[in-house]
Amino acid sequence: MTAVISNRPLWRLAWQRLRQRPLQYLLCIVGIALGVAMMVSIDLANGSAQRAFSLSTDAITGRATHRIEVIAPTGVDESIYSQLRRMRHHSPMAPVVEGYTLVEELGAQPMRLVGVDVFVEAPFRSYFGDDERLDAQSVQLLTEPGAIVLSQDLATQYDLKLGSELHLDIAGQHRTAQVTGIVAPNDTLNRRALSNLLFTDIATAQELLGQVGRLSHIDLIINQPEELQAIAAALPTGLKLETAEAQKNAVQQMTAAFELNLTALSLLALVVGMFLIYNTVTFSVIQRRPIFGILRCLGVTQGQLFTLILAEAALFSVVGSILGVGLGIVLGRSIVGLITQTINDFYFVVSVQQVTLAQSTLFKGLTVGVAAALFASALPALEAMNTAPSLILQRSTLEGKVQKLLPKLALLWVGLTLAGVALLRWQTGGLIAAFSGLFAVLLGAALLVPPLVSLGMKALASVGYQVAGVLGRLAPRDIVRSLSRTSVAIAALMVAVSVIVGVSIMVGSFRGTVVQWLDQTLQADIYVSPPTTTANRVLGKLNPEIVETLKTWDGIRLAVSYNDADVRVVDFDRQAKLISADGDVSQGKRPYAWIRPDLGADPWKALDTGSGAIISEALILRENLASPPETITLETPEGDRTFPVLAVFYDYSSDRGTIILDNDLYTALWHDDRVASLGLFTAPDVSVEETVAVIRTHFKGRQDLLVQSNRSLRQGSLEIFDRTFAITSALRLLAVVVAFIGVLSTLMSLQLERTRELGILRAMGMTPRQLGTLTLLETGLMGTLAGIFAMPLGFALAWILIYVINVRSFGWTLQMALEGRYFWQALLVAIAAALLAGLYPALRLGRMNIATAVRQE
Amino acid sequence: MTAKTWWSKLFASNTSQPAFSQNPSATVIASQGAVVQIDKLGKEFQEGEIQRTVLQNVTLRFDSGEFVVLLGHSGSGKSTLLNLISGIDKPSSGTVRINDLAITELDERSRTLFRRDYIGFVFQFFNLIPTLTVLENVTLPQELAGRSSTVAQQSALHLLERVGLADRIHTYPDKLSGGQQQRVAIARALAHDPALILADEPTGNLDEETGQRVLQILLDLTRNTGKTLIMATHNPEIAQLADRVLRVQDGHLTRVIVHPDALEEVVV
Ligand SMILES: Nc1ncnc2c1ncn2[C@@H]1O[C@H](COP(=O)(O)OP(=O)(O)OP(=O)(O)O)[C@@H](O)[C@H]1O
Ligand SMILES: [Mg+2]
After folding, report:
1. A787 plus A683 within the same structural domain
2. Residue A594 and residue A579: Cα distance in Å, rounded?
3. Is A477 close to B132, i.e. CB distance below 8 A?
């Protein structure tokens, strides 16, 4: 016997309900949409920046399989290239000179300037005509000095034609060049990639970038392994053979932690959104319990009921997710600037011309949105399904179940918190474990909300009566009576607000730490460097003549010069920042995390004599080392060299890790005596501001200089800091908006559910104002509870962020700085959000039709 | 300023015929019962395109201390009439005066306060606030009016004793039987000593015996204090106890007499 089951009547019921209560579903959809939008936008912005970088890297790499890398930051002498050519390998080989420039005509954003040899280009990059024949452009490129080729897209965007003049700014030195060629690759990918690049002849690039006679790297296409070995063997020290792939990975690795942090934050909004979904679905189930009971009595199966509820959730989650993806794309476009700025400040130069939407982003947004909704609605669906038909009819059954559940929830809280702590303590677990631990703690806290609310409200009912009379008694009891819903709203708000508290404490502590660190570290009065687009890192070098002039400048007591380069740390197999210095800009005031015991208080004297290196704590923390290593081995153009570690210093300017060496040692090993920045100490009676002004005008025409007083440098650094965290504040605000919607929909649903009860109150003589007060009292209470719970949770969050997440992501130790305002502001936000959410329902109640309300049931 | 004095002030300024200004002491009015004067009362409901006339041009007077029963088929408009009298619904036309105060002309707030202080309500079922105990339910109307809880509790306890629930004062409504709940509702309707009691099928949801007991209590508590009681019911037996029986039909009210044995009515 087969049973015929039709779901049609059920769909009709669902549809009718949707038409009766559109607002409730709308709010839920908005909640999902916001959660998904946050995730998508972060993903989009991250992805676009990454793709822009890897596209232009790809465009430069072309079909090269390998690359001969130069360890020395100044590049390699071209003679090496000639030597390699003379070995007559079969593999194609192409020299490249690379650097960054700003072009006035191209919106003054950083562009990659790539110098190539057109004669050997063809196998690698096909921008310059075919294999055999050189086209007219390429010939021009060769013959005209200052000839530049750019892409059709760029030319169109900035209205440039063949022959247009370009004004280049390379680390403050001004050069002019000409557009002699415009390339238009036929595939879109290449077109996009080229929008970041300028091509020149190799000689022009050397001239423009000030690297005459030197190459950045040599591209290769190697197919035979024997050839690979032969070339590798023939390479002199200071050069290394790498796959093209390795290069790209290194870059991606740099920003991984930064991106993971943003993603985790965006996930938070989704979690809050999930509370919202759970609430909406639970409501829609509870409100229909009588209907479901009747349906079950009439012969609707458990499975049908489950399907109905889940299908509804699926439907609005799909709508919400699609909206969310759309919104995310819009949002992503606006935050891509913020994210690129941070990447530029801290990691590498990239300019995003185009926000590109990866299919994976779309897919992730949709699936996570729908999955979250289904997960959140499974619980109420199961509950409705497994309740006996006769019991579904009873209103109080569910709340009775919840009351019985409270001790278990408290136990679960203990369990989750312990699991979270274990995850957080798992040193080698990495960032994913740390974030899992964080989420476990958050979720655990959310589970503790119902028992706490229940206890708190029971205690409050009697106190409330003393303070606010009957209303004071009714409000807390109403909250407890609908605990399954109210506690979810409170939990959602609590999580959102605790994120505010936690992130505020973290950012505040971070800022405080950085301010103090800047105060101690930056002791020089004036700082001189080439102008940079990236603010935090110096990209160019100072003209040597200028350095000499400034060192003997009148009124300058002491000049400290700095240079920096990328270096591979052999011990940890990763890139770090290398600083060479001829003096301590902090004059011994720099705080150290560790100093080798035999060195006393100032390790700089030992550094000056070239007897070792000072390394930053990020190197140690990110490698999970229990104590500072005795030595550190670096890759130098002279081969790997090991240096004793003299001290560990705090460095908040880089999360990759920094190594300081004496400049004599550095010059000897890296063959680089350039200077990237100068710290000048003025004589006692010299005015800093005047000196700054004089230096600025003195070198006009030779090199644009960034001359900053101590104060403005510090200000600038803090501006970068605030810029970095701008996106964080935007994200935490969004989480609160989602939570606000949660409270609003909870309240509205609660009131729908209690229409008759409220009608009786009104019939008995409760004024609209009193009813409004009751509503606001309830929401105010919910907000207050959420705010109060959010304080310890926010503190815990801050602790985790500061002592676990930050350490593992960036290797920074921060001093936690607590301020009262973080807490009371959060409380205010919670109460304000809740009261605001209560306003609409309160107003609506004021206009309620009592006669209709009393008729219901 | 207590709620009561404020209330009287409001009356004095807001109404053309200050019903209570001659009689500022509310308790005096209450113990006297209320006179309800209905004039050309009409009520229509708009349901989409269709307009449904439930009451049409009803003119009627309920005297102080009178017990009037409203009979009528389901859907005839009994509840609608009670709602109009109490002011929880507004008529389409006509006026309702209680002790010469035209409540249909009051604003929402004043109507509510009036109801709170001078009218007691008993519904068919789900009368009680589930989050409040029996005692708290009964003291609620007085406490809403700002009366001190000791004062409110005095009359509440007294009434709860009268309805036989003195031992259940701290119980929540969901633990009570239907009859017990209805007795609490009666106690609550009377606790603030209203002049007018409106009962909409107070026994409709109870078995016959329980219904009888509940009704008896209600009558005991109202009849000998001279309160006006208007009750909607389907039960002709109750009608026999009334001073006057009105049948609601086709938007009109007609006075009928119900014979004790034969279940027939005589239009008067
Ligand atoms: N809010 C409303 N909107 C539309 N029609 C309404 C509304 N309230 C009442 N009615 C209609 O008014 C008529 C009278 O309803 P009422 O509730 O007064 O009847 P009743 O005599 O109390 O019936 P019962 O004995 O079943 O309680 C009914 O036809 C009903 O459909
Ligand atoms: Mg009725």
Report:
1. no
2. 19
3. yes
* Of A586, A588, A580, A585, nearest in space to A605 by CA: A588
Query: Both tokens of residue A481?
Result: 């009576």
Give the pLDDT of residue B25: 38
- Average model confidence (pLDDT) for chain A? 82
Ligand 1: residue whose CA is nearest its atom 5: B45
Q: Does residue A40 form part of some domain?
A: yes
Length of chain B, please?
A: 268
pLDDT at A596: 92
Q: Give the containing element (helix H, strand E) for B120.
A: strand B119-122
Question: pLDDT for A104-118, tens place per residue?
Answer: 888 877 788 889 888
What is the CA angle A81-A85-A90, rounded to 5?
135
Q: Do A478 and B131 touch (CB under 8 A)?
A: yes
pLDDT for position A136:
63
Q: How far is the CA of A174 from the centre of ligand 2 (A)?
A: 91
pLDDT tens across A29-40, in order? 887 888 888 888
Chain segment A224-233, per-residue pLDDT in tens: 888 888 888 8
pTM: 0.79
C-beta separation of A49 from A340 below 8 A = yes
| Whether residue B205 has its Cβ less than 6 Å from ligand 1 | no
Q: Computed over its alpha carbons, how large is the radius of gyration of chain A?
A: 33
Non-local (6+) Cβ contacts of A60 within 8 A are A96, A98, A112, A114, A125, A197
Distance between A471 CA and the closest CA of chain B, angstroms: 8
Cα B204 to ligand 2 centre (Å): 10
The pLDDT tens digits for A601-636 are: 889 888 999 889 999 988 888 787 888 999 999 999
Domain presence at residue A226: yes
Contacts of B42 (CB under 8 A, 6+ apart): B53, B55, B56, B57, B58, B91, B92, B93, B94, B251
Q: Which pLDDT score, from 0 to 100, does residue A648 have?
A: 93
Mean pLDDT, range A82-109, rounded to an integer = 83
Q: Which domain holds residue A413?
A: 397-523+711-857
Give the number of other Cβ atoms within 10 Å of residue B4's Cβ.
Answer: 16
Same domain flag for A654 and A794: no
Q: Looking at the structure, do residues A402 and A390 belong to the same domain, yes or no? A: no
Which member of B125, B144, B149 has the closest CB to residue A765? Answer: B144
The label of the residue with tokens 């209320």 reads B34
d(CA A471, CA A456): 17
What SS3 state is found at A231? helix
Residues 6+ apart with CB under 8 A from A325: A36, A37, A40, A362, A365, A366
Q: Which residues contact A246 (CB under 8 A, 6 or more apart)?
A: none
- In tens, the pLDDT along B14-63 reads 333 333 333 333 333 445 688 999 999 999 988 778 888 999 999 999 99
Domain boundary among A237, A263, A281: A237
CA separation for the pair A665, A512 (Å, rounded): 35
